[in-house]
Amino acid sequence: ILNYDIMARFRRRTCIILLLFILFICSIMMALKTLRPDRAGFGDPFGLGLLPELQQRIVLLDNKQNSLNRVQGDTVTRVSNLHSIAVNTMKASMPPVNKLEEELASPNYNFHIFYYSWFGNPQFDGKYIHWNHPLLPHWDPKIANNYPKGRHNPPEDIGANFYPELGSYSSKDPSVIEAHMKQMRSASTGVIVLSWYPPGMADENGEPTDDLVPVILDYAHKYNLKVTFHIEPYKDRDDRSMYHNVKYIIDKYGGHPAFYRHKTSTGRFLPMFYVYDSYVTMPEIWANLLTVSGSQTIRNTPYDALFIALLVEERHKHDIHRSGFDGMYTYFATNGFSYGSSHHNWASLKAFCDSNNLMFIPSVGPGYIDTSIRPWNNHNTRNRVNGKYYETAFSAALLVRPEVISITSFNEWHEGTQIEKAVPKRTGQVVYLDYKPHKPNVYLELTQKWSEKYRKEQEQWLM
Hints:
The chain is α/β, with parallel strands linked by helices. It is 35% helix and 10% strand. It is built from 14 helices and eleven strands. The chain has a nine-stranded parallel sheet with strand order 9-8-7-6-3-2-1-11-10. A two-stranded antiparallel sheet has the order 4-5. Helix 7 crosses helix 8, helix 9 packs across helix 10 and helix 13 runs parallel beside helix 14. The radius of gyration is 24 Å and the shape is globular. The N and C termini lie far apart (77 Å).
């Protein structure tokens, strides 16, 4: 009997230890998912419903799946309404101030950061713009019926999971623009990649803002920052319209001291244009614009530039090369969302670019959460892990020794990729995420830290 009791206790103790060990392993796996979810078995890592144009291309080319309704334009940048009278009062050019140079970190022109001027509020715009973003339905009606509908109701209820320190601001408020420039400069970024639609055009939730560009250029110049353009997939974008719009940008803004030009390996200084959703347009159309023999070629003209395409799928790298682009970027801040945004694919992409004389620009981000506008999309959420996710992305980027690193984003609040200052906030119905236990500027400080690390490592690469 004594031996039986001893054996029973031993078996119970063994079962408890085994159960605790299994729970420990499960917790480790879940923690790793937040940092590197690339191919882990936690559901579909790609979430291609956010890229319906890509799915439509797959249907046409591969006939493998049903086409989905387009969720337009919300994965990146949108713009706000402008009033010309207010803008005209803001256009005085401001020279750099020596005191600013002493107080702020030096700009790193190899750190490019995506910036959005799509926000509006009643004080400056007569209404809220983008803060009142609608809740986007899932493309599957059966799933959509399980989630709320409607719009957000600012200023307490905004279309974001975090809440900005500046509140539900207007992108044309001079004090906001200046605060943004100061924050970006304090983070030691150097180039603002400004979302851009042609004059009179905007996304479905915003209003035209091309008139704001001179103001942003002036304030950027005050902080010794440069501005380049993130060209959105505007209506009827093709080789002809792109030629005219690139010409428009260079003619109108190319003479401004804050207009960015990139020094190439041949010593030329060329404008740079990021082209979002470039894969929607056929390579043959891009080749008309971007190859020397193209019918609408921009090469070897006064409007020649560096054109950087968005890579989502692995096969896009061949299309990008065939199209005549000068490089590729990955944009998405969700490790594992797409082939391009998955950190473990960056080495092979960099090798492909090196062998084909292309630039590879990885995009790093602090995390991702867009359930305030896509409540059904929590499987693409990437926890910030108090800054560890951001640092993991930077570490992965530095491993491939890129010429430029892009940051997604300064203020894409809808998708929770912002490094702009955010503060804790609680309302009757909403508890916003925040950066605690750190201060509101923690992601600016982390960016500055990695900017300096990049500079030091780049010196070693070039030796």
